Structure prediction request, 220 residues.
Amino acid sequence: MATTVGVVVFPGTNCEMDAVTAVEGLGGSGRLLWHGDDDLSGVDAVVVPGGFAHGDYLRPGAIARFSPMMGAVARFAADGGPVVGICNGFQVLTEAGLLPGALQKNRGLKFLCQPATLRVETTASALTGRASVGDELSVPINHFEGNYTCDDETLARLRDEDRIVLRYVDNPNGSMDDIAAVCNEGRNVVGLMPHPERACDELLGSADGAILMASLLAAA
Prediction:
C-alpha cells in the first residue's frame, strides 16, 4: 500500500497540489486535509504547504495555528509522526510552537523568487534521511518573510543538537547562520523555506527536491 501524505489546506494555501503531485510522482499517495477538520484520516505523514494562509493577516501563520487541523497535526507530531512545513507551512509550524524561532521579512525587504543552493547539514531528520551530509541541492525559493531568526540560546541549542537541517550556500534573505531548515528535538518535524515539491522534475529546472520528498516518504 502506498504511503499516504496528508497536505493541509488553509484559505489562501496555493501549493497543495504541487505537494500532492510531488508525492504521487514518487510513488506515494496525496490526500488534502481541510484546516477546519480535526482528523488526519489515518495519513502516514503531513505536509503543511506554501501559500498565504488566511491572507497572512496579522503575520504569516498567526491565524492558521488556531485551526482545528493544527491540533491534530500537533498530536500526530507528538506521537512521532513525520511533519514537514514548506515556506508558509514553516511559518505556521513556528507560530504553532512545533518548531523554534520565527520568520521575518527578507533582508532588503524584497520578495524573492529564484533558485537557491542548499547544503545538507544532517541526515538525521524526516526530510533528509535519503541525502548525504554535504550534498548541495538546487531548490527554488518564493517568499517575502523567509528570514529565519531566533535568540542566541536557541541558536546554540540548534547547533549543539545537530538540528540545523539545511543551510543556504549563498544566503539570499538574511537568515541567521544561513539557516534554510530546522527540525524539532524529535527530528520528525522539519520546517524549510525553499520548495522541494517544485524541484522534483528536471523539466522544472531541477529534480534535487525529490531526494527530500523521498526522505519524507521513507520516514513515514
In short: The two ends are 12 Å apart (CA to CA).
